[in-house]
């Protein structure tokens, strides 16, 4: 039997697969951005998280001599688990242990001013020209510097021209440019910030860049923090699941009810009805199931009534034929007696067939509300063995004395008797016939096993169908008319039970009659 995969699980799996596909697409887009332009993609994030940290580092370096800058950067690297490095004046001085800078980073380094002008910021002359003092006489100079021109001049970026010395009066130099670069061989992610650096032993301001290097894209949340994205995605999935759950649950419940009804109809329980309040395709299917069950119930009921009426009408002519045959037997001579015996045999076979049809129709046409009573399983089995087996086969009974089931006595005796009769007929020589019983939850299973040839697996589902015989070549000596197990099923279902059959691994057939236990028995055991 193939493993089942519920519709509910399929819909949810498809939903989460959709989320996964969207996540993969988003990740691929993110990777493309990382490879093509991570600086533009994360510029806002770097400004918010990395730049404040960079200002702290720059301020800390301003309070220490250059000889201690590498130590300061090393402590920062250990604290944030990201490598820090400072490069000033076009790699004239490098602080921090980063090794050789990639060529792509070298192109981003600012070019420092000549050595003679390194100690103070340049001044602007008239018209925004860089140079020394204004050409105006000092007496006409108001002592203020000219503002920066509208266009960006050559040399350091705007803002670097202002004399913003670290300290309570000036504050730190501004950051002119920030960027994030991914390099390969080995793979690193670099964040660079261009500014001017000062130290306790050099307050003039030297152009340079602060680099932060990480082996991962997130840099432990410093460059890029995955947490908000993961939380956002989880929230979307959770809210979407809450939104989808009622719809999925409603659909699967309705489909489950329709499926259960169809299975009951397949087992011959045509009185089943499905709720048809839905106005969609499932509602139409439910209505079709109800109409189909009603029509099938009418067909089967009519068929059984027809068989019963026909069998009943045949009883009278068969009885008259038996009476006439008895008279003929008395008047026939010795030569005619074999012919009379053949007719008697045919008549007996016809009478048995009619009796089977009557039993089948009566079992199927019983009122729906059969009065069920607690019955002893052991007493039922002993009565069947006494009536059906006698000395024809060996029977082993393994049933507790106090085990009870709910049923109607005549129906259960007929059902158990038909199963035992079949076992005696087909498997008496294979070994003992075993009748056992066990409790399964709120039910009792009566198990009748034999050691015969069993039944082909393909024929097991049809074993309880009317007029079905495993071996179609069987005649009246080797098999009946194919109604014995059908009557078993009808009788057990009339007692609100179920019947099934399967082959034993060691050989033989096992028929299982499942019936309800009395409620008071459940209460006592609890």
Name the descriptors.
alpha+beta; Helix Hairpins; Heat Shock Protein 90; five-stranded antiparallel sheet; five-stranded mixed sheet; 11 helices; rod-shaped; disordered C terminus
Strand content: 15-25%
**Cα distance, first to last residue?**
36 Å
Q: Look at the helices and sheets and give the structural class.
A: alpha+beta
Q: Kindly report the CATH topology of the domain at 373-525.
A: Heat Shock Protein 90
Tell me the Rg in angstroms.
49 Å
SSE string: HHHEEHEEEEEHHHEHEEHEEHEEH
Going across the biggest sheet, name each strand in turn.
2-1-7-6-5
Report the top-level CATH class of the domain at 373-525. Answer: Alpha Beta
Q: Given the structure, what is the number of helices?
A: 11
Brief rundown of the structure:
With 526 residues, the protein is α+β, with helices and mostly antiparallel strands. The protein is built from 11 helices and 14 strands. Among the domains are: 281-364, Helix Hairpins; 373-525, Heat Shock Protein 90.
